[in-house]
Design goal:
The protein is mainly α. It has one domain (3-55). The protein has helices at 3-9, 15-31, 40-50. Helix 2 crosses helix 3. The two termini are 19 Å apart.
Length: 60
């Protein structure tokens, strides 16, 4: 799951809307993981990795 793939699937939506979809999907997935992977730090790392190839996110 990446922001780039969500943008491709939702080309009519803004980048911000796609980012919100990404967050929703990651939070939903996070609930099904074991406790060691449910931390905010782990979620932050997944968000950073998911946004890796998006130029607008390069400086965030």
């Amino acid at each position: 799951m990446s922001l780039k793939s969500i943008v491709k699937q939702n080309d009519e939506k803004s980048l911000l809307d796609c980012f919100e979809i990404l967050l929703k999907n990651l939070r939903h997935t996070q609930r099904g993981l074991s406790s060691e992977f449910r931390s905010e730090k782990c979620l932050r790392d997944k968000i950073i990795n998911a946004c890796n190839n998006i130029e607008a996110c390069a400086y965030a």
